[in-house]
Specification:
Two copies of one chain form a homodimer. Chain A is α+β, with helices and mostly antiparallel strands. Chain A is about 30% helix and about 20% strand. In chain A, the strands form seven sheets. Chain A has a seven-stranded parallel sheet. In chain A, strands 2, 4, 5, 8, 9 and 10 form a six-stranded mixed sheet that branches.
Chain lengths: ~675, ~675
């Protein structure tokens, strides 16, 4: 037969020169968000686990490695992947720096290991392995060619032993030292590298673990009726720090518009004394880069940042990209707004409702590039003042491509910047925003009250691919949302929701002091707006009220800080309990050194009890040994036995228990314990 | 403010000129196999349904279209996508030609529809809509610019009516005719097209619906002990056709090697009279393009093809790419085989087992391109003789890239060629082969016996993404596999497995006559090999045995041909029944004109009964009306009421029922029916 012509093919997956011999398949790499269109997310100090399906035809042994590199570095670091059942392989690396990493997977048929396994089986069966030993010598000699001086000598020594074909040669072939050496010099001529370099975005730890408190600075004055200032805020800081919060989020601090200003309780017309909504941004004094005069100066604001920092609190600002008719943009850049047929600027509306105090920006403007650059400059301006956390108002009503671009741009110069998406909208829209780059996202937690609702939702958030791009930030209330559960459940409802938020979510926040003071009167029955909402007026809160939850909150936040298990959502697991009014879940560190089991009575009115079931082995417990659970809220300790245990919670005294599980350690004193 | 500089960005997803205004997101397009790396599959005459998540910021109305085109045609055909709940959209097109199609999705913010919805709401609320009407006129006039003469006139007329701002103008704006016209001329300046053109491979209907029968031609002689020929096979055709099979699959028909030939019952040494295994391919007379002399000539073979065709039967050949030591390749192309250290060719082994009669081809050979081309020429050779169906032996022991290439190559000249993958191996390997291009695949059906096993496996095959690339072909037995269930279940077991294979799978096959004659003696207890397996000897089957299932099989295959529901797997649904020894499932056509409900008693030894539950509405039944179920196996008819009905099956008489569901049609004669 004559030499066959070169292969022809119409497929774009035609094997190129030599590639026909690359027999390994790599598929189903995880994490991989939308086919690699978006980055997976981790925080500094976390581990990044990567899995892939890897296999080849036949039964040869394979080797597989996880490759990763920090952006800007071209050299890959390699990690061995370990085989799991069903052709799945897994490996992990620690992320230590802010910014983007890239990762991919490489695998190849491992001729040496295939040979070694066959040798072992044949030798065990007493077969003549002379030819096998000679074949092995060839493989080892080829590796020696690639090896450094020292290793080369060792490999050549092994090859020589294999060639001697003595009984000892088999032992040499199976020697672990030889295997370890050969692993250093694999034959990767026909290695397959996964076709994509996947991106991993690494943010600072606060993206994963943060405790938010929202206040209106204008309500911080010590004298009732006075307009609060940044200085008043500064005075409030110790109160906030004592409760254990580390992010203080302020609604917009910019000049407030006069045109169509809303009055108290969102009245269509405002009295002269009405202060307006902070989200109605812009007047003659300025827009998104200016400070509302009554709050103080830029210097006062920076002073607040500094003072907060001393208490380990970061100031988060609100980014609400919308304008009142009085905003300087309206006159300077009318082209950034949509026009009505008469040339006037289109106000916001949700027909038939009209919001004439708000002009939305037009992301379809012909001058969209100028608009984008200006909005970017707003965020950068506040970065320059020292702000690094932004809570973005209604991002789902601005164009998605803008967010991807602007977050990327800001992070290029400020990789420590964090963005929280306040998007209470449809699920796919919320997820898209997270993929586009938001560090954290508001969630439906606010309205998930029952055992099954919570279990289903948080299983989706933490146990599916969602956990790779969406970081939940749980809010039991906001200035816009006083839920029915809080309206009718009294103080126990506030306690239960606080514990749920603080333990289901490594990131959570409350709108205070309304929350700790258990403010629960809605503007109208069936609605979720607060009566006399702080959005439209200055409030004076009595922080010293005896029913305040401030100490309870402090306790819960202290527990969060002390227990690493609560500082991440990845380990969240729900457990069965025979009463649907109770919910049981755990979080634990990977090493199981810190295991927290939380039980919450979801019924704020009645004592509820039930038998819960813990998966002892998953939690590293010996199911035949008793173990201690230590309620970190009350400091009570209980001895539990086996997987099934009884709990009873009276919502009036304690609607929740946060147990630290303390497995028994076998030692002499154990004996005393039972005496 | 000065004109802002152009955008800068480090992201590869930077919006290009104008793209910043493209606000729509298209994601999660289905089907999309491995991020578009592989084609989805359909057959000629089927409908292709495509879904995607489509949404934008805010609340504007969207329009979305499915675009598709046949390979080689650059113009897209467009289909309107319809919105489903939760931002999901769906559309479908019919495939009519063999070969590749491409499809993608396009969507945009629909300004006209957004305007129309807002107009309706504002008009309903009695608001002044003068400015809205003027804005609408502008939108309609812009569309008119794009429109053909006739439509342009109509659109201009509508625009003029809107400009009149009379009460009638609102009605004009909401006129469906205007909406239909506007749909013709959408403003797609900022339309978003999904970033991939996804591939759809269309094969002929037999890829979806086929009924296979496997025989050894050498066992077809009418005189016991004689070596059967293709002419004997031809005589057997009416018997096969009467049973209703349309694919006759022959094990390899090539010269059989002498070296290390296996004797009866796989004995290590063969007697002179032993005929050897047909899968031991190649001797001095030739290899994969030659015919085993005792079977006849190439002309005889082609004659068999022609005769079969007249009975609507296609001949399928076995592609087993392996050689005996006597195969011409061994001397002509020793470079296509792996060498041992002494220069001899490496035989197959699974240490410590040796298969010295088989030399595997070395897909890592330096001459791999020549090898690939030669193997391709083997398939093309048989295509040229008129064969279009290939059952590929152990494809999972040959390099995956080879299969993708060779199937693509063969289909380029023979788009009607079909390939069945005989890969009884790990799940991911089986799925990969299907993705690479195999038309059909053997499955684990062979060993799935219980209600839960069958339900779980076939739900995975038919109700997940697997159904888009993997077409099951169900075999209750093969020459290699006599299952325990068949060994111990007697004739009822054969009947139950036949009905399961023939109704769960639009593609199924049996190895006969062993199957219809209920041959059930294994070579050794606990094994799955047949005693005196036809693989190693010539058998003479008594086709007239009274216990033969030939008539039962004929009946089942007749039912398959008469009922379109059974000719596809996509509609398979399992239903609850309160006895785990019974299984109930349905298949139906999309229009529900043909609904088949199958009940099988999985226990071949005892009568089993139970209450099953049908989802009346899903099946288009009125739950308040009785309906008829007609057992197509026995012709018995039953009147069922509501969703819960009783069944009882005695395996000795009938281990299965295949009901055609006949919903009541309300008419005069109904009355008579109950009299």
């Amino acid at each position: 037969m004559e030499k066959a012509p070169k292969l022809q093919s119409t497929s774009k997956h035609l094997p190129g020169s030599g590639q026909g011999r690359s027999r390994v398949v790599i598929e189903n790499v995880k994490p991989e968000i939308d086919c690699g269109r978006f980055a997976a997310k981790r925080t500094v100090g976390e581990s990044m686990t990567v899995e892939a399906d890897i296999f080849a035809d036949g039964h040869d042994a394979l080797s597989a490695r996880l490759l990763y590199r920090k952006e800007g570095i071209s050299r890959w670091t390699e990690i061995l992947l370990q085989p799991l059942p069903n052709d799945r392989w897994r490996g992990a690396f620690d992320v230590t720096e802010l910014g983007d990493y890239y990762y991919t997977v490489q695998a190849w048929v491992d001729r040496f290991e295939s040979w070694r396994q066959a040798l072992a089986k044949k030798a065990d069966a007493g077969q003549d392995v002379a030819l096998e030993l000679a074949a092995g010598a060839l493989i080892v000699e080829a590796a020696a060619q690639q090896a450094s001086d020292e290793d080369q000598k060792s490999l050549k020594r092994f090859a020589a032993m294999l060639r001697e074909n003595k009984p000892a040669a088999i032992q040499s072939g199976l020697d672990d030292q030889l295997a370890a050496l050969m692993e250093q010099y694999p034959d990767r001529r026909w290695a397959v590298t996964y076709e994509k370099e996947l991106r991993l975005n690494v943010e600072r730890a606060k993206a994963r673990f943060s405790t938010w408190y929202e206040i209106f600075p204008r309500s911080c004055a010590t004298t009732p009726g006075q307009h609060g200032t940044f200085r008043d805020c500064k005075e409030r800081l110790p109160y906030i720090a004592e409760m254990g919060f580390d992010v203080l989020y302020l609604p917009p601090i910019h000049p407030i518009g006069q045109s169509y200003r809303k009055g108290k309780n969102n009245a269509l017309s405002a009295a002269d004394s009405d202060v307006g909504s902070p989200w109605a941004i812009g007047n003659k004094q300025g827009g998104h880069k200016a400070i509302h005069r009554q709050l103080g100066t830029l210097a006062d604001f920076k002073d607040l940042i500094t003072a907060a920092k001393q208490l380990d609190i970061e100031i988060a600002l609100d980014i609400a990209f919308q304008c009142t008719p009085d905003h300087p943009y309206v006159t300077e850049h009318p082209e950034w707004f949509r026009k009505r047929a008469d040339g006037s600027i289109q106000y916001a509306e949700n027909p038939p409702k009209k919001y004439q105090d708000i002009y939305p920006l037009d992301f379809e403007s012909e001058r969209w590039e100028e608009l984008w650059n200006e909005l970017k400059s707003v965020i950068l301006f506040w970065c320059e003042q020292g702000v690094r956390i932004f809570r973005v108002d209604n991002p789902h009503t601005k164009a998605f491509p803008f967010w991807e671009w602007v977050i990327g741009e800001v992070k290029r110069t400020h990789p420590d910047a964090l963005f929280l998406a306040e998007a209470f909208t449809r699920p796919k829209v919320m997820y898209r925003l997270a993929k586009l780059g938001f560090s954290q996202s508001y969630t439906y937690f606010t309205w998930r009250n029952t055992q099954s609702e919570i279990t289903q939702y948080f299983t989706e958030l933490t146990q599916t691919e969602v956990s790779d791009f969406f970081r939940a930030n749980l809010w039991p209330n906001t200035p816009d949302i006083l839920t029915e559960y809080l309206q009718f459940g009294g103080r126990p409802a506030f306690m239960a929701r606080l514990v749920l938020a603080a333990t289901l979510g490594a990131n959570y926040g409350i709108y205070g002091p309304a929350f700790e003071l258990c403010e629960n009167i809605p503007r109208e029955p069936g609605g979720e707006e607060y009566l006399n909402s702080e959005k439209y007026e200055i409030k004076h809160w009595d922080l010293q009220k005896s029913e305040s939850l401030r100490e309870f909150i402090a306790r819960v936040n202290h527990i969060r800080r002390q227990n690493r298990a609560l500082q991440s959502d990845r380990s969240l697991r729900f457990y069965p309990i025979d009463n649907p009014e109770l919910i049981v879940f755990s979080k634990s560190t990977e090493d199981l050194n810190n295991i927290i089991v939380v039980v919450v009575n979801l019924d704020p009115h009645h004592t509820q009890s039930g038998w819960l079931e813990l998966p002892a082995e998953e939690l590293g417990l010996d199911p035949k040994q008793p173990f201690q659970v230590h309620d970190l809220l009350t400091d009570a300790r209980y001895l539990w036995h086996g997987t099934r245990n009884y709990v009873e919670l009276n919502p009036q005294s304690a609607p929740a228990q946060i147990f630290r599980v303390r497995p028994r350690i076998r030692r002499e004193q154990d004996f005393d314990y039972f005496m």
